[in-house]
Amino acid sequence: MAWVAACGLALVYVAPVAMMVAGSLKPDARVLAEAGSWRAISLAGASLANYRDAFIRVDLGRSLLNSLVITTSVVILGLGVNSLAGYAFARMTWRGRGWLFAAVTALMVLPFEAIAVPLFYGVSLLGWRDSYSVQILPFVANAFSIYLFYTFFLGLPRELEEAARVDGAGPWRTFVEVVAPNARPCFATVAILTFLTQWGSYLWPLMVTGGPRVRPLPVAIAAFYTLPPRAWGDILAFGVVMAAPVVLLFLLFQRAFVRGVATTGVKG
Amino acid sequence: MRGGGGDRLHRHAAAAMAAPALAGLALFVALPFVAAVVLSFTDQRLGSPLASRFVGWEQYRRLLADPLFRRAIANNLSFAAVVVPVQTGAALGLALLLNRRLAGRAIFRALFFLPVVFPMALVAVVWVVIYAPGPSGPMNALLAAATGGAWSPRDFLHDPAWAMPALILLSIWQGVGFQMVVLLAGLQAIPAELYEAAVVDGASPWGRFLHVTLPGLRSPLIFVAVVTAILAFRLFDQVRIMTRGGPNGATTTVIFEAVAAAFDRQEVARGAAITVIFFLLVVAITAAQRRLLRPRGVAR
């Protein structure tokens, strides 16, 4: 009984994805014509022509590269900067720590949408639009990532660091050689959350990119789909390429994904 | 063992470790937020040669008098009013379903969770196909089959009565997996002894649900409801891609209006005022969560 219900629900989840994949393999005109019947997922006459078209017509390769550059930059820089800050807050004594930490936690409630307009205004005045850096630098420091690292480091046994200190290691070496290797799960959670947010980011790149040069995938697919004539096969092929990296990573690191998203709920 | 010099070294290292992140937050989060408040009291436009003037509460007065902006707030509220209970309820149902022994449970869980990792822009474009007008559109075909052909096909995304429900349905489809995994974790944290004790007391399955499961899920339920409510007020991507706020303002939202003002029409000050209002709404929801979680949460 429960199993039948689960299968029925699974169908609701499989069908749109199956339609996207099958649609990406068939001629444009057949996508909509067959979408309303079981033939929506039929693979008769499948070809990769749409994928070729997507790479040529809208330069899917360029958008893919842009998304990869922006996302990996934010993830790597963010892991470094935020883990160090989390460590400084969790384990070190310095002037201003208390009120600065209060300020960081206060910033956690601020969704990006609340600052998008003035940030857009600022980068426009500076002539900073249409670049990679304007899509990377504002997202490196993240109050929520700092908080996640902070709570994780609080839970690590102090003995590890004390042993390192007795061996004569300074704070930096202690962090790099002792603390960070023991915090892999937290690094994984933060990396996944940052990756998901950046890979799907639409609002900010929509405002700051003017053309295809530095435009990431979400803005590119939205622009592609309004480009006449609407070639649905090509658009869905574009979609499959866009989904493939996240699906692949999800299948590889499913447990970390679920834990990461469940502990937070920042993904929007 | 550590002398004064070592202490200073330690403090310098701490400051250096925290500095890049704090500088980033100050420059890209705190400063823009202050700028939003300041800009909202001016008439600043982007690329205008005229100097900006201080106009007091004028932007807010105009916004609150603007029927389209009031429509946007009403749309966000009705979106939240449907999505928060329905999505939380559906997630609870899925979590209960997957919390029992079920062949292929891991596969089902992965499947229901999968859309959560998809970019919303992609989901929106795929659902444009699903909502395609005419009898061959998948949603139209499904409803026709379900009603034995009595359904007359419509253009969901251009129909004032159907555009918002269409956005609601796809948003629930995309997001329910998130609430599901949170509630699933919550269910697994409820001690089995509580259920055993309830069985000994002769509680029915329904009684066990009401008196063990629901109280045990209090915190995760409030958490997912609040997160969903905040997401409902951030609603933007689907709207921008699928309906552009239309038809006739039927699906416009607060953030859609902010972007339309600041980005499409270069009215930065108006956009800033909208984001300040948005921020106050989010703070109100967060404050409500804190109040809900405090009183009985401590006693338990």
Question: What order do the helices and strands come in, and which of them pair?
Answer:
The complex is a heterodimer of chains A (about 270) and B (about 300).
Chain A: H1 2-23, H2 28-34, H3 49-57, H4 60-91, H5 97-107, H6 116-125, H7 133-136, H8 143-155, H9 158-166, H10 171-179, H11 184-200, H12 203-208, H13 217-225, H14 232-252, H15 254-262
Chain B: H1 4-39, H2 58-65, H3 67-98, H4 105-117, H5 120-130, H6 138-146, H7 163-188, H8 192-200, H9 205-216, H10 218-233, H11 237-243, H12 254-264, H13 268-293, H14 295-299
At CATH's second level, what is the architecture of the largest domain in chain A?
Orthogonal Bundle
Q: Output the radius of gyration of chain A.
A: 23 Å
Average per-residue pLDDT of chain B, rounded, comes to 89
- CATH fold-level assignment of chain B: MetI-like fold
Largest sheet of chain A: none
CATH superfamily of chain B: MetI-like
State the domain count of chain B.
1
By DSSP (H or I, 4+ residues per run), the number of helices of chain A equals 15
Question: SSE order of chain B in H/E notation?
Answer: HHHHHHHHHHHHHH
Quaternary organisation: heterodimer
Can you count the beta strands of chain B? 0
> Approximately what portion of the residues of chain A adopt beta-strand conformation?
under 5%
Question: What integer value in Å does the Rg of chain B equal?
Answer: 25 Å
